[in-house]
């Protein structure tokens, strides 16, 4: 996952987007009014998406540097890890703990684990770019 994010960030910063936009602008110059307008809308949509991606990258990079963010994340991830560990240990070794099912953790657990690995992969990708 981190190599994919790193690849996308490198492509976005390599000038590929600028070359694509330049090509679209050249194509718009040779098209009819309606087609040129459609191409211009595509160009602006691409520019907006790139600007949003850069802004979110800066925001996410800044928030990952604050301890408060990690403390807040730990409030959700650590209880999930404790519950999941108890379920696994009880299931494998049959301790008879009768670990309660927690529907909210079952529903959100997979999403939290995905988020945790996504953030970890994102941090690794950002560090590889430095």
From TrEMBL:
User: Record's superkingdom?
Assistant: Bacteria
* Entry's transmembrane regions: 67-89
Which lineage do the record's taxonomy fields give for this organism?
Answer: Bacteria, Pseudomonadati, Pseudomonadota, Alphaproteobacteria, Rhodobacterales
Q: Which organism is it from?
A: Polymorphum gilvum (strain LMG 25793 / CGMCC 1.9160 / SL003B-26A1)
Which UniProt key words apply to this protein?
Answer: Membrane, Transmembrane, Transmembrane helix
Descriptive protein name: Transmembrane protein
């Amino acid at each position: 996952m981190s190599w994919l994010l790193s690849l996308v960030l490198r492509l976005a910063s390599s000038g590929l987007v600028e070359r694509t936009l330049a090509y679209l602008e050249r194509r718009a110059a040779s098209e009819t009014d309606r087609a040129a307008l459609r191409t211009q809308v595509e160009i602006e949509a691409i520019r907006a998406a790139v600007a949003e991606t850069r802004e979110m990258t800066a925001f996410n990079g800044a928030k990952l540097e604050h301890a408060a963010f990690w403390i807040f994340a730990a409030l959700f991830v650590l209880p999930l890890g404790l519950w999941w560990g108890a379920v696994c240990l009880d299931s494998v070794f049959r301790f008879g703990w009768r670990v309660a099912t927690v529907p909210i953790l079952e529903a959100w657990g997979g999403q939290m684990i995905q988020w945790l690995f996504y953030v970890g992969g994102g941090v690794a990708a950002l560090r590889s770019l430095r």
